[in-house]
Amino acid sequence: MERASCHIIYVNRNVSEDGLIHRTSGDTASDWATDEARQVVQPLLDAFGDVHVCATGGGCLTKLFELQEGSMLDLKPTLVLLDTPKDDSIPDRRRRLSSPSPSCNSSSENVDIHTPDEDLYGLGLLQKIITEAHLR
């Protein structure tokens, strides 16, 4: 079966370090942070061949923008797969912004905007990727 012609980025905190993993590389157990990480990444390697793995939201965004610049020339799409914790949710910003408490000032709105990329994960990271895509 022919492999998909696209870039794959997989974000999972269980991965020990960011990098490109090749399906044909002689991966040993020491290359993986946990058996769980290996079990999750291996099917992606089988399906796509090469997978960029990232342990943090910042690593994901950096790799995504790097691949996006190169993809402008070769028109190769990028697929981002995010690990999302079961209890993850996106805060309802409309509710928070429409009814601020009297003691709140406008600087509280900037907290979400300036969240360090390293702290982004799951649905929060997805929201950041969507925002960045609209800005580009």
TrEMBL record:
Biased composition, class Low complexity, residue ranges: 98-108
Region (Disordered) residue spans: 84-112
Protein's name according to its UniProt entry: Uncharacterized protein
Organism: Fusarium sporotrichioides
